[in-house]
Amino acid sequence: MSQLQQYAILFGLTVGTLGLVLSLYALARAIGKTRKEPGKDVPATAGQLSRDPVWVRYHARYTTFALLFLAFDMEMAFMYPWAVVYKEEGLVALLDMGVFLAILFLGLLYGWSQSALKRQ
Amino acid sequence: MSSFVLIASLIFATYGVAVIEEWVSTNRLRLAGPLISTLRLLGQENILPRKSDRLFFEVGPVLLLIAALLSLAVIPLAPGLIVTDLATGALFFNAALAYVLVAMIMAGWGPDGAYGMIGGWRFLGQLIAYAMLVVMPITTVAMRAESLSTIDIVNSQEMLWNIAYQPLGFLLFLFAGMAMAFVPPFDLPVASGELAGGVEAEYTGVRLIIFRLGRMVLILSVSSAIVVFYLGGWLGPFGPDWSWSMIKILGVAALMLSGGRMLPRIREATLLAWSWKLGIPLALANIFLVGVLVLVVPL
Hints:
The complex is a heterodimer of chains A (120) and B (299).
Chain A: H1 3-31, H2 63-84, H3 86-89, H4 91-113
Helix pairs in contact in A: 2-4
Chain B: H1 2-26, H2 33-43, H3 54-72, H4 89-109, H5 114-145, H6 150-155, H7 162-165, H8 167-180, H9 192-195, H10 205-230, H11 241-259, H12 268-296
């Protein structure tokens, strides 16, 4: 099977799932209507309208983790092609990536020492 | 013919996971349980919360289902039983499951309810904790197989399963996978005891069916990834290939769902701290160890 065909199958899977969902929605609609009553559509906050607005800015307390995550995530982009040719390249590949990972690990340790790894 | 068998076995496995999920959470084994609750939810009314972000509210559960199904598409049940044998299968698995986070944030943001919102943002923190521990162990699996194709990965375990070859990676991937599928004790976004269902709280009726179905497929996909990457996929001593896949997948799903319930729910900050202070150093050590092992004892 060619690459293009494989991605066509995946696209077909997506479209098929959408079709399944839509037909389920249609089935549920066909079963019958429900009575409209006030207060039914209030989000779950103990039966009252929520007191404070919900769509506001939040203090993300894991910002420093997120920054470290970005660095590591970029590194993973290099790791996958490296992993595939690892056995062929042998010791050279181990040393190359070893240096790279050691630097990243030192970065993690430095972040830890600067108390990046705790809830802000 | 084989595509029919594939679809039937995937539906069977999803149903099996749903039965196991109900069994461990209610302590009653009801084979018809998921079917009955689906029919019940089909008759329940579909409430659209007032002031909701309609697009996000509708897309959330559907995206969860599509992401989980796409990740399942690269998982082989037997040599011929796979939707697409992508050359970059293991990478595609990650790429598809990255959308779980997007779906959860959309579903949490959409209804403008506090519980859903908190659940969605918590899951973002959870992603930062588990994501590296999912991708790093997969790298070492690919190092041994010299390929990202899932079929090659299973074939590379013919001599020795990866659970014995790289046990550290297995443990990390197991826990990270559990966090990715948000099964207890990592069920922060849907924490039923404290958030009234969290992200699921505002979903009723047929939308909830899609949401739950998506979650079941997600659990199935994570447990089958564990089987393919670490437990030798379809490899077994006798009998047909697909039966071994099925037994292992349902076994891992049962282990994940029942084992996690013994532990108290972990806080997002604690999870982040454990994952970055212990998990990532262990995962880096695992890459180094397997790197040496692959060169010295190439099994």
